[in-house]
Amino acid sequence: MSRHLERLLEIDRLLRSPERHTAITLAEALEVSERTVRNDLDFLKDRYQAPIESDRQRGYYYGDPNWRLDSVPLTKGELFALTLGARMLAAFAGSAYQKELQSAIEQLSRRIPETTWVNLQGLSNEQVIFRAGAEIDLDPEIWHKLETACQQKRRTLMRYYTAGRNSYSERKFDPYVLHFSRNNPYVTGYCHTRKEPRWFRVDRIQSLEVLNETFEIDPTFDPKEHFELAFQHEVGGIPTQISIWFDTATAPYIRERRWHPTQQIEEQADGSLKLHFVVRGLNEVKRWVLFYGKGAKVLSPPELVTMINSEINSMSNIYSEDKL
């Protein structure tokens, strides 16, 4: 933002405050000369038709208090979209951007009439509801440190909790990109422990130190390919062709979404379908297939069929045990 625009916005704020302001008090508040203030006031009147008036009792003030400085030209629809976007980001990122979002929306809201803003705010809060699922405990400080590290390409030292092994580890990590998958916050980058690009759940990072060391992104890392071959949030492993059959009752739920960039649907005469796609890693696919119960059957690869059978047998044994 230019220094001139900053002054105009501050003058606008001061003229709306209950205090009496003269060229002298405005100059003191802005730390500029009286001549600069008078030039800015003339600029507001000439360029923006600001209804600025003055008298001895009130000093400078707006003759029409409903006038708004069009410094950020937004339509009501655009502000409504921004308000909803802020709520969506808050639903995904939790408290990471809470203060920044509130401040930005409040500043933008001052540029439109109060009654319009109240109507937009009421509509976005009452008529549009976001349900992000289970809440996550995301530390804003760690998230913002990762933002800085990504932007400046600075290596980090983190203490990470691995839920699958219920263990903690310390590792050096070069963060490439922050992203969300299934409402969960992730950072992808090069793990010096595993010697390969890895995903890490940001809310599982216990502590993070941004080091003075810098890094360059591995030239063999192709973000497009990396994310296209991921299913849900699993990466790593050899690209594998997956084929799953879905029965007639389940097929409509599969048709209505695009589950993977490489997917192909093979329709069957009875209304069922076969879904084909290529991914790295099978664990997330296993969990996804089990969600559909008897409505889905893995056709290939054989390793995934074995994983599904093993899971089903283990579940069956648990429920067949005679326990209270």
From TrEMBL:
Residue ranges occupied by any Helix-turn-helix type domain in the UniProt entry: 11-60
Keyword Transcription: yes
Residues annotated as domain WCX: 240-315
Domain WYL, first and last residues per copy: 143-210
Annotated PROSITE patterns: HTH_DEOR_1, WYL
SUPFAM superfamilies: Winged helix' DNA-binding domain
UniProt keyword terms in alphabetical order: DNA-binding, Transcription, Transcription regulation
Domain of life according to the entry: Bacteria
MF-aspect GO terms: DNA binding; DNA-binding transcription factor activity
PANTHER family according to UniProt: PTHR34580, SLL5097 PROTEIN
Name of the protein: Transcriptional regulator
Organism from which the protein derives: Tumidithrix elongata BACA0141
